[in-house]
Amino acid sequence: MTANDKVLIFDTTLRDGEQAPGFSMDHDQKLRMARALSELGVDIIEAGFPAASKGDFRAVNDIARQTSGTTICGLARAVEGDIRATAEAVAPAAKKRIHTFIATSPIHREHKLNMDKATVLARAVEAVRMARSFVDDVEFSAEDALRTEPDFLIEVFSAVIEAGARTINIPDTVGYATPEDIYRLFSDLRLKVKGAENVVLSAHCHDDLGLAVANSLAAVRAGARQVECAMNGIGERAGNCATEEIIMALKTRADSYALGTDINTRKLYGVSKLLSGLTGHAVPRNKAIVGENAFAHESGIHQDGILKNVETYEIMKPEDIGVPKSQLVLGKHSGRHAFAERARALGHDLSPDQIDEAFTAFKTLADRKKVITNSDIEGLILGKEMGTQGPWHLKTLQVSTGSGDGALHMAAVHLVHDTGRAVREASMGNGPLDAAFKAIKRATKASAALADFSVRSIGAGADAQGWSDVRLVHDDVSVHGSGVDTDIVHAGAKAYLDALNRLIREAKPDPKTTAPASSARALSA
Ligand SMILES: CC(=O)SCCNC(=O)CCNC(=O)[C@H](O)C(C)(C)COP(=O)(O)OP(=O)(O)OC[C@H]1O[C@@H](n2cnc3c(N)ncnc32)[C@H](O)[C@@H]1OP(=O)(O)O
Ligand SMILES: CC(C)C(=O)C(=O)O
């Protein structure tokens, strides 16, 4: 594949995606997601905005330290402090990029920046020059490009290319453009920007009108060779171009685009599930590519067609996305090989130790459930991954509940701390979950307010497992925890403890790192 036959995938799940309300991830979650994106094969990971907080700096810095083979990028305003922080954060990466930006549209210049055209131009050039003094790979974005006067865009882009920018990003920041607008602008810029032939043109489209993927494809058609996107389409407001959608559109319609990517598409489903698990936001059932219904057929005419020839109603192969067909039924008589194979097919490359641990949990679950579904296995793997890091571990939860006037709800917990200290506590509550949360809070002596709680069934049937998400807030720190169990009270208690553990860990950053300490405050006794 030559550079011109390939579209670079710039994934911004950890920056634009993470900055959307409800999607923030803690340090460990960002590192876990970066590993998954790197294994997926994205070319560039925009890992965060290092000047935003000490926590984001540390996350970008650790991702740069631990991720090989993928370019690690950080975002910086056209401000010296932001560029210095970003340069320092990405420094450990073998392949590093600084992405600097400034808004160019009249409304942003006048009302947000309070700068005239000449000042914006000068700041853009200065920022790129400064970024180039730290790294070779510099990307420049003209924020709100699609509402900017085209002549001014040409002037700014020509100047930043001369100053050393290698990638020119043309964002539709507010998701206002149509595919025709995008095609016209990219074609025009390719012709008129001085030096455009020596740089990569990039699209960054938002989904306010539901056009982010269509607009990104229009940009590619007009010569863009980098697309900025986020898994599950997360991002500001309605989100960004969805990584899984743009990749599968290019692959499925190779007849029309004839452009490749370096993505291992078989991992898309697993990475999408991982992100849902980490953030507590399930993708809608009817979501393209990775939704539960993407390859499911219930109506008779469709089922008949599928049985006669699957291509009557499916334009992609589920296995190309990593959605496995359940040919092997897993239950209590299944062995380690079949289990490991299914986990792999679901996009989880587990180490032998992780397989042992998940397999033991699988056997326990199989004793309680007749048939284990793919969702059950995902629950086991993701749930384990989320709940295993301490410092507190739930050994036993006992709940006594009732219904009707005067019914009492009680919970007793036995927790063990990483130090070996065991604590038993009990509490009454307004319901079994409330009692369990209060007992855990007493045992850990942690203080945090419950901001959100939900539980949903994964898999089908009365014996389906429950997946619970909890969001806790302490001062200005908000964390999410997950728990999976066949008993929904236990799932809720696990999620609550997972979130409490995250708050406690946030308060004590890893002393081994040389990066600035997290701003989170001490929580637990
Ligand atoms: C389209 C996008 O997605 S852009 C990225 C958006 N992401 C984020 O904002 C997340 C990270 N942001 C943050 O943590 C904070 O906003 C910070 C640390 C960057 C700045 O915080 P503060 O100094 O408190 O400023 P605040 O956010 O209130 O205002 C932004 C300031 O930056 C200026 N600014 C905005 N964009 C740029 C830019 N690209 N270059 C230079 N200055 C800029 C604004 O005009 C404003 O300046 P003013 O204080 O002189 O009015
Ligand atoms: C910083 C830029 C690329 C951005 O996120 C936008 O304009 O939406």
TrEMBL record:
UniProt keyword annotation of Transferase present: yes
InterPro entries documented for this protein: 2-IPM_HCS-like, 2-isopropylmalate_synth_dimer, AIPM/Hcit_synth_CS, Aldolase_TIM, LeuA/HCS_post-cat, LeuA_allosteric_dom_sf, LeuA_bact_synth, PYR_CT
UniProt superkingdom: Bacteria
Hydrolase among keywords: no
EC number in record: 2.3.3.13
Reactions catalysed: 3-methyl-2-oxobutanoate + acetyl-CoA + H2O = (2S)-2-isopropylmalate + CoA + H(+)
Sequence similarity: Belongs to the alpha-IPM synthase/homocitrate synthase family. LeuA type 1 subfamily.
The protein, known as: 2-isopropylmalate synthase
Gene that encodes it: leuA
GO biological process, any: L-leucine biosynthetic process
NCBIfam families linked to this entry: leuA_bact (TIGR00973), PRK00915.1-3 (NF002086)
This protein's UniProt keywords: Amino-acid biosynthesis, Branched-chain amino acid biosynthesis, Cytoplasm, Leucine biosynthesis, Manganese, Metal-binding, Transferase
One Pfam entry name: LeuA_dimer
UniProt pathway annotation: Amino-acid biosynthesis; L-leucine biosynthesis; L-leucine from 3-methyl-2-oxobutanoate: step 1/4
